[in-house]
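Thread: Modeling a multi-component assembly for a lab meeting

Hi all, long-time lurker, first post. My supervisor asked me to bring a structural picture of a complex we are working on to next week's group meeting, and I have zero experience with this. I have the sequence lines for every component (225 residues in total). Could someone generate the structure of the whole assembly? Inputs are pasted exactly as I received them:
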Amino acid sequence: QKEVEQNSGPLSVPEGAIASLNCTYSDRGSQSFFWYRQYSGKSPELIMFIYSNGDKEDGRFTAQLNKASQYVSLLIRDSQPSDSATYLCAVTDSSASKIIFGSGTRLSIRP
Amino acid sequence: GAGVSQSPSNKVTEKGKDVELRCDPISGHTALYWYRQSLGQGLEFLIYFQGNSAPDKSGLPSDRFSAERTGGSVSTLTIQRTQQEDSAVYLCASSSGGAPETQYFGPGTRLLVL
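Re: Modeling a multi-component assembly
Sure thing. I ran the full set together rather than chain by chain. Output:
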C-alpha cells in the first residue's frame, strides 16, 4: 500500500462547478497535510495546509481533514479553466521529519 | 525576497558520466529537501537536511546518489555513473522548519541521460 494515495484522473469538471479531489494516507501518526498545485512543466506550489480535523477555507478552496478515516480532500468552488493542473496531496510522516507526496490527480476544467 | 534557485535548469549527459545538481534555498530556511519526479509521476523523496542534524538519506535510490549541504545553505546532489533511468526532473525545496512545514520549490533541473 502506498503511503499517500490519490486517484490519478483525469478528473473532468465543467467550468463553474465544484471540483472534489481526494487523498488517503496510511500513517496514523501524520500531523500535517498539504495540497500543492502543479502546472505542466512547472514546480509544485502550495495551495493549502491543514492539521486539524474539519474544514479550512481559503477563497474558492476548502481543505477537509478526517484523521479517523485517514482522509483529506480539497474542494474547488466555481472552477475555472486556470484551475486545470495536477493536484498533489502531501503528508508529513509521524516523525514530522519529511513530507510524503501522492502521485497527484490531474484536473481538467472544461469551458 | 529571492526564492529557491536551482542550476543547471537542463542537463544532458551520457550514460556513465557523473553529474552535479545545485540548489540555493531561501535565505534563512533551515530545512532542505531533494525530490525526483519522473514524467507524469509524483514526487519521490530523496534526501532531507535539517540544520546541523544528520541528513535523512532514506530516499536515495542507490549508492550512486549522494548529497551534501555546505554551511547550512547551498546543497549539491551528485549522481555518479548515470543511468538512463536517472532521467527525471530533480526538484529542491526549502522550508523554515517551523510547524507546519510548508515547502517552497525551486524550478527544478531536467536531467536527460542518453
